[in-house]
Amino acid sequence: MLKNYLKIAVAVLLRRKFLTFVNLFGTVLTLTVLVVAFATLESVVSPSGAQHRNDHVLAINRVTMSHSTEFILRSSGPGGAFFTSYVKPLRTPDLISLTTQARTGTSYIEGRKLTVQIRATDAAYWKILDFGLVSGRLLAPDDIDSGKSVAVINEATARDWFHGQAPLGKRIVVGSHSYEVVGIVRDEPQTSALSYSDVWVPITSGETRAWEQEFLGENQVLLYVNDPAKRDAMRDELAARVRPFNVNPDPVNYNTLRAPATTPFQELAALALGRNDLRRDDWQSDPSALFIAVMIVVALLFMALPAVNMVNLNVGRIMERAPEIGLRKAAGAPTRVLVGQFIFENLVLTLLGGALAFAVAPVILGVLNDVFRHGQLRLNLPVFVAGLAFVGVFGVLSGAYPAWKMARLDPAAALKGQRYA
Amino acid sequence: MPESLIALTNVQKIYRTDRMETIALQGVNLSVERGEFVSIMGPSGCGKSTLLNLLGLIDRATEGEVTFAGQSVTKLRDAQLAPLRNRELGFVFQSFHLIPDLRVTDNVEVPLLYGKHSASERRERVLEALAVVGLDARANHFPAELSGGQQQRVAIARAIVGRPNLLLADEPTGNLDSHMSDEIMALLERLNRERGMTVVMVTHDKTKADRSDRIVRVFDGQLVH
Amino acid sequence: MLEHVLRLLWNRRNASRLVIVEVAAAFLVVFVVCALALHAWGNYRRPLGFTYENTWRVRVASEQGSPQPGKKIDGLRETMDDILAAVRQIPGVIAAHSIAGTPFSESRAIALLGRQGVAIVTMHNTMTGGAVKDLGLRVVEGRSFGPQDEGQEYQAALVNREFVKLAFDGASPVGRRINFASPESLSRLPPKQARYLMREVRVVGVIDDFRQNGELAEPMPYAIYSPVPDGVVPTELFVKVPAGTDRRLEERIVATVKSVASGFSATVTPWQELRATNHLQTLLPLRIGATLATFLLAMVALGLIGIVWQDVVRRTQEIGVRRAAGASARAVRAQILLEVLAIGCAGVAVGSLVAIQFPLLAIVKQIDWAAALPALGLAALLVLLLAAGAALYPALLASRREPADALRYE
Fold first, then answer.
1. Does the structure's ipTM exceed the value 0.85?
2. Which of A152, A262, A343, C373 is in Cβ range 3.0-4.6 Å of A200 for a Cys bridge?
């Protein structure tokens, strides 16, 4: 029975090859874009690399000092003094860490110029994030205490620098500072904002320890709880401690402090919605809900165009076959069967489009993985499920209306050749 | 001397598809005189509709010569053929081929759009044509709202609105009851006798064919006598 | 003929509803793409306002750390003066000036400036008249900083055209004061800072623009202050070097800074490199958007082609009837084209009604919807051209058939 339906469906679709192609192109394109977008989102929200314990972690990326009545504002990352005054006293987190942001460093080796991302971390960083060790060891608390010039590098850097020779024990020069390589870890994608880097060194290995006294700096703070349920409590405790602004490096100019602890999703939402520090009304609200709403609307709109196109083509097809359909109805074929046949045809097309999209999407993801450094986008289970959901919604959107029209088709009028609205 | 309005000389028509070739007409020599009323008869599939199409210049012969009013039209390009069709010919199709989204008046008006007529002149002629076929009461209806016989008459009105010299009709009474058939035949005869319109009609009804001046019989793509 | 076609279209309006909706949707997509593209291109086209070639940033860092709120680095001003003097002496350095914010970098300083009652968020920078000249800034009204501004009660400033437009409605700001301090802040602050806040910032000239954030940045009101003794000490310099200078000069500069100022170090980066990094960040979303837009447009195009094709093919019999009645192939093609364009216009009209809502309701505040009108026009043109183009080929095919052939078509 199914095979019969399938044969008819394929025959119908092949009869109008160009139109079927148009339909298919639109479907595949839309579904591919949606799958790729979802995969990118998913990799940011639940990364699979070192940041995989995402739901245990919150990050402080931005500290903003301002005045409640004056137009004056200073915004940057958290500095050592901020860390000491506001983060160390927190009781909810089980681990806290201060690390510099990944910075571009240039080195010259044998006349070649190489750029790497370099990050200076403390000891807790390596406990909070779970790096995949390839060889050697990670940075130890000992290295941090003594400020040793040692470095952990990723596989890409090991390749670029040492060309197959064993890097462990050799030295790597970044900027004007030389480090001994003690470990190699797996690459971390640019989309993982907390773990991303090529080279990791102790935060204490710099030329000066001035950063410890600075309130602001180009750093990130990580907060970790063993029990993910306590994450909100951790966020609230930080907010409560920050609000009174008890430790204020410049009380003359500033009287308000903001330092929210955020998830990568919230950061992405804020970025996508164009939030910035300059607008006060952007500060308080959590952008997540709005961002999700916007994404759903955009996805629906994005699907709308090819869906309308498919609807048009389907209605056209039905109108073309109106006499045939009218004849069948007049001959006693139940509407149910006719509509069922049509929906089956539509489903075949949509599923085919979905299958092609699942074939094309990994290719696009591969390209994107080169665009984002060390990208690790891939088609995993959540993405696949989301893709199926898109296919389903799309199939319904594009098939419902024409199916309804077909059901309503009046056999007598169709046979008489009346044009259909 | 009766002059030939349209003449086919040694005409052949072959239909070619990807898979096969069909010889629809072969070795046809036929001349229709001005003012004649000709019937074409034959079993179904014998090629009589094809013959009508060739006479109506709406199809091209694969081989042979077609002459209209002494002028060879076989090699004419579309740009020259179209005005010829517009001025001289009127075609009534077996399945009417009325445009469903146009009202009766607009349907009848179609041939006039491609000639040089003013809007008022077109309106006048349409009403006149509808009056001739007795449908002026239904001028504003859509084809779907009319019966088969009424649609037939609209098709005839459309064919004659341009006052053509040659009227071709494919089974013009095929869908009608006997009363209506007689009326249509009477109309055709009137157009032929009173207006001097040359009429070529395909029919399978001998009684209707007998009312014409001449019967041309077709069998298996060839004229038989 | 036109009447006839219009009547035909009117009678078919119910069946055409969906096609019009699709054309409207396609138009909206094309419109958004055009609006964004025109906007980005408009931004890119506007001149940068300064030269960045052969210019290097010299960023000075102190052992005592980076500039912090509430922290003073001892002897910073004197040290920076020494560094500047020493760098100027280096052979190969054409010019050296201090600058508060280097272009193409993350740093930006903003203030509320304007005239009484009209205060706007203005980005600002600090540099000398010499720096203004060496960066190639064009003064279009008034004058640049000069010796007559030194030792005065006021702090001279240059503003850009955008600032003049927003704060002064286009009237000349030359000679006017643009900063205002509220009595509350004056009473709150210690005397030295209050005095600084009370100083008059006076406009002496108007520049074209100084697009600190790069070619893709949105138009932004900008002000350039001339340096005053009480102001912030800039820790960045820029040097102008001859074309083709290699990195050895960089090493010399770094060495010079180290030798002149103990406890200080320098990093040298060409502005070109900063610009490249800036482009990487700003261009990436644009490139992704462009790729997406291309595919969307392809989809729109194919979709329209599909329905137009289907529509024309469906009317093959009607075409046959008209041809049999004496319509030339060209007349038939013209009619089909006319109908498709009419449907196209209807769709564009519906789409425009929706598109107009965007600027009217100020949805998506980031985009300047003043570019909307040309985008509307461009999108309408593209969609109509596409529809017409999509109709041409099937119309050609259908009209070329012999009438009898077309009439037989199913």
1. yes
2. A152
